[in-house]
Amino acid sequence: MRVVRALSAALLTLGVAAGPAAADASPSPSQDEASAPTRAGTSFRTATEIEQGQRATASGSTGDYLYWSFPADTGQRPTVEATVKLPETHALQTWQIDVYDGLRRRQACQYGAQTRTAEADTSSVKLACVLRTVRAWSEPWANDPLPGTYYVRLTATGVATADLGLPVGSEIQVDSKDIGGSAAVDGSLAQPLVPGIASKPEEERDDAAVLAGLEPEDGWTSGWWSDRWVWTAIGGVLAALAGVGGYALTRGTGRPSRVPPGT
To answer: What is the pTM of this model?
Structure first.
């Protein structure tokens, strides 16, 4: 029974430790709106960097390509939301957001209104794209999301010639849900897919990159930790308790008193 009590105490300790671990995995708080970017890039190389939770704005013209970039780490499921403010008078327009990873591979949306058509004289249109969970590692032939820089491209795909060049306003925000150990995989990347990180010498390769400077608030984890470790430990303790309990139930009470020794 002393062994059972000791194992029970260890299980309780692991359960308490799992609580703070889950709390620490919550999304980072929103950034100060005053420091949010007010412009967008016109290509992958000039994409405006934004933090997750930060609402960025930009002005442009109908027909322009607007680009932003943001960091996404292992275990996160990013959600990109965009709002386009249209001119007072316009014809039928179709707007679309596309998301690309650090290798500039287009990533499919799990769900969300990635493309929407605005009727004539509609004041605004809202778009959304929920990506798949970012994995720590993937096969070279797969198109799985991997940790690194992600690019968002906003543009109108169906515009009347008379509407080209009309001024529009845009808002964009990226938030993530931390999926946790359920999405954990064995293996990790040597470096996150951040543009320019491979062009720096090894001794200078700290946290910043040449072409992209943003990273997650707690740095790149690259899959070295997940709450799967906690639940694996809890499973091991439960298995030990089951073994001790089974032994206690099956070992019996020893030699009956009516049986003489040596028989």
So the answer is: 0.70
